[in-house]
Design goal:
Layout (H helix, E strand, L loop, with lengths): L13 H13 L3 E17 L2 E19 L2 E7 L4 H19 L16 E5 L3 H6 L2 H17 L4 E19 L4 E18 L4 E9 L13 H17 L6 E7 L1 H12 L5 H5 L19 E4 L24 E5 L2 E2 L6 H7 L7 E2 L8 E2 L3 E4 L6 H6 L3 E13 L4 E13 L2 E6 L2 E6 H6 L3 E2 L4 E2 L6 E2 L3 E2 L2 E4 L2 E8 L4
Parallel strand pairs: 4-6, 8-15, 14-23
Antiparallel strand pairs: 1-2, 1-5, 2-3, 5-6, 6-7, 8-24, 9-10, 9-14, 10-11, 12-13, 15-16, 16-17, 16-18, 18-24, 19-24, 20-23, 21-22
Amino acid sequence: MTDTNTTSSPTYTDTLWDNLQKTVARCPHWAEVRYHHRRSRALRVRKGEMENLSSSHYEGVGLRVLVNGTWGFASSSDLSLTGLEQALQDAERMAHELNSRKKQKVQIASTTKLAQGRFFVPGYDELWSMPLGEKLAFVKDSEAEIRQAAEKVEAAICQYTELFEDKIIMTSDGANCHIKLARPEVYMIAFGADGTRHSTGLESVGGTGSWECLFFNQPAESMISQAAEEAVVLLSAPEGPGGRKKVVLSPAMVGLLSHEAIGHTVEADLVKGGSVAKGKIGETVASSLVTLCDSGISEYNEGAGGILPVDDEGVLCEKTEIIKEGKLVSYLHNRESAAEHGVEPTGNARAWEFSDEPIIRMRNTYIAPGDDELDSMINGIEDGYFIDGPMGGQADTTGEFMFGAQKVRRIVNGKLGESVKNLTVSGNAFDVLKSVDAVSKDFQWGVGSGHCGKGQPAKVDAGGPYIRCELLVGGAQS
């Protein structure tokens, strides 16, 4: 196997920069040019065998113009000046063709937050220069260790993926920046069996930065043992009683709730479509203990998987408070929705590939930590649950959600009890936030692996402290 890490990270010639600048300068309308170079690799081992060893690489330019209140967009992998000028002409042609059909003309918000200069997130070069053989050895060894961690673990998977992103973004009103970042992630899966029953234990993490960013919260050895232990525990775990319960949600569960059930309802394009958050700016939507934010940086803890210094409209990605001490104070905006609402853009315009137009997406969404101790939060529950290990589910723009959870323990008389399986949690997210009566000092990121989907993928993260709240638990019939 050839170690492809001998190739250095991309460098950009003066010719490319000149071509991009000339293309923007020649457009008589507002214009945005976004160069994107991406490399990705995936390594996957199952039952001691290599299942996947793949890599991909692409680069190109997306070019967007605003002509008489109408968007036009085109993309090209031809980076010559001729190719860029052709893409510009295609975008302008599209805008002119759509103009007569556009009932409501688009405006974009002016802003002082346009990025200029280099924005290189640390860890890119370190991760790229790390030999591929070392990463492969980690995947092979980890998969073997999971299988050997417990007698009732019959199979395992370890998967490692990495993305290396390079972007140059220029706009006719002043953005001119170069962004570089790397996003590694690891999945460890244990499959348990005892002859009649089967179970799965999963540990995953995704970050932004070097190899080390994967293990800020727990070392690899802990991920291995946790995946195996969970698979074994779930083989014999009973189902817990359902009903409305007081619970403690882990940072990962808080992150899932914050992103899926709250975050999407406050994306301004979905607000415009009629989400539950429409018209509620200034209203109390949560307990006064709850402050919920979305940020381009890794707040409170290192290595968040959705770090983004600049969005795909060239706007700086600062922290946005969405809910402040229980009150809804902001939506998430691109430049178009910001103009509609008469506010500054929040740096939430994102595109997955150069051939995609930017849409409003989250970055790192979280509830801010509070002042409570986890032990005292558990002690305050007579009959409830400690819920961790988010396993996905569904949520919609009404705020209604239902999520699965893998690591669940009963709380009885203020003490952690037995583990249970097949538990779901559901409710209206804003009602759940109104029930919050304790927020811990702790903070972790918890959902940085995988992708968020909204027409196109996006790398995000979410997390928070432990919170105590009330919701509907689906379990065994009581």
